From TrEMBL:
Keywords: 3Fe-4S, Electron transport, Iron, Iron-sulfur, Metal-binding, Transport. The keyword Protease does not apply. Ferredoxins are iron-sulfur proteins that transfer electrons in a wide variety of metabolic reactions. This is Ferredoxin. It comes from Streptomyces roseus. Signal peptide: none annotated.
Length: 67
């Protein structure tokens, strides 16, 4: 698997938290309730639920790209 990069469009995120519920090993929510990637997990580190978490976002604020 080629390296991946996770991007969260912070201006689009509504803080629904579906990503953190689906892939808690990659995503969390900040103090304001908006999604963020856990430190050191910016590449997804092979999480099997990474793509499912991106699909679960109700406003499509998460993108995963191959590097």
């Amino acid at each position: 698997m080629s390296p991946q990069r996770i991007d969260i469009k912070t201006d689009v995120c509504i803080g629904a938290g579906q990503c953190a519920l689906t892939a808690p090993d990659v995503f969390t929510q900040d103090d304001d309730g908006f999604s963020q990637v856990l430190p050191g997990r910016e590449d997804g580190n092979g999480s099997p639920l990474l793509r499912e978490a991106a699909r679960a976002c109700p406003v499509a604020a998460i993108s995963i790209r191959e590097e």
